[in-house]
Amino acid sequence: MITEQAERLASQVAAILGCSVRVITTFSQTGSGSFPTEGLPSAALALSPDAEALAARLRALPVPVIGRIHDGALVLDLRCLEDDAALLTALAG
Q1: pLDDT of residue 77
Q2: CB under 8 Å to 54, separation ≥6 — which residues?
Q3: Can you name the CATH fold of 2-92?
Q4: 2-17 and 84-92 are packed helices; what angle lies between their axes, rounded to 10 degrees?
Q5: Phi and psi for 62 in degrees, rounded to 5?
Q6: How far apart are CA 71 and CA 48, in angstroms?
Q7: Which region among 6-15, 16-25, 32-41 has the lowest average model confidence (pLDDT)?
Q8: What are the residue ranges spanned by the domains of the chain?
Q9: Which terminal residue of the chain has fewer beta carbons within 10 Å of its beta carbon, N or C?
C-alpha cells in the first residue's frame, strides 16, 4: 500500500522539483526510549542528486518538508503521509 503510494507520487515529485526520484524500501524508526532499534517496513522517495541542497530547499518551503539523507539521497519516508495532494502542494511551495 505505501509502495503503491510512492510509485504514484514519484513522477509527480520529480516534475515539481526537477530532480531524480526513485522508490525505495526502508524501515521507519518507531520511537526511542526503550525500543530505539525497533522499526516498521515502509516505502520512501529517494531524491537526488545533491541531497544536501534538496534538503535545504525543502526545509525552506512555507510548509517545510523534512527528510533524511541516506546513501547520497534525500529520503522522504511515506509511512505517515495521509494526503498525497498536501505533499505535492507543499513541494510546489
Answers
A1: 95
A2: 17, 19, 47, 48, 74
A3: Aspartate Aminotransferase, domain 1 (3.90.1150)
A4: 20
A5: -55, -40
A6: 10
A7: 32-41
A8: 2-92
A9: N
